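Hey, can you fold this one?
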Amino acid sequence: MYFSFSSFRSRAMILMLCGSILISFTGLIIRNMDSAGALEINFLRGISLSITVFLILFLRYGRASASKVIAVGKPGLVAGTLLAIAGICLLQAMTNTTVAATLFICSSIPFVTACLAWFILKEKITSFTLSVMLCAALGVSLMFLNGSGSKSNYGLFMALLTAISFSVFAITVRKNRSIEMLPALAISGIIISLFCFTMIGKNFSFTWLDLFRCFLLGSFISLVPNMIFLYSSKHLLAAELTFFMLIEFALGPFWVWVFINEVPAFWTLIGGFIIMSSVMAFIWKEVKTQSLA
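Sure. Predicted structure:
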């Protein structure tokens, strides 16, 4: 018995796993900011994301890069706007309710996406995929067992809107997978930056080290996983794509524990272990199937 990673689906899954692990460092980096607040972080992250995307497009297509941006059309504009709305609403949710409550609601994204994909794209997931998704949902529930209290209904609504917006974004990208959607990432960065700039006004507060961290977030830690997401959307179902997002919830507290020595709660560790086990079982099943094919 040997495992093959030659199929596009298997490679997409491994890439999604790597991308989800990378983006799970976001919380650790934000935790180490000197003075930058949520608005400053998202403003600088959005700018760096957009600049880097435009630079990649220029290096890849040269003078034709402008036509590539135009060619993204309405689907790309919609996708970029939805991704920006998800990011903005997530910011609002985390500042108006607990982080635990926000992430708990956001963990519904794979299930919301699965329902929308079934209705819009006629994509049906297998019973095994549904089983591992439910196991992961149990893990998420355990992680936030003692910390899901809420400060406001507004915060909960923003978290719900985050989940819906990202789910529709995943559906849009999956439906238009034949289109080069990279410019959509730049669009989202621009919208987020404009929104945050409007909210901040003249009250900017960040150090040079914060600036470096924010650009690292936008140009690498946010960009690479999103590019992987766009690539994988050509080979994975919409629900499968968003399923990998749960890894961020599982590993985020772990990195803070390792690098800052903030010990997570017992149930957080157990829940994270269940999530990671569910994702690895999902990948193992796919790779095994491809090996036997």
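The chain is about 80% helix and 0% strand. Let me know if you want another pass with a different chain boundary.
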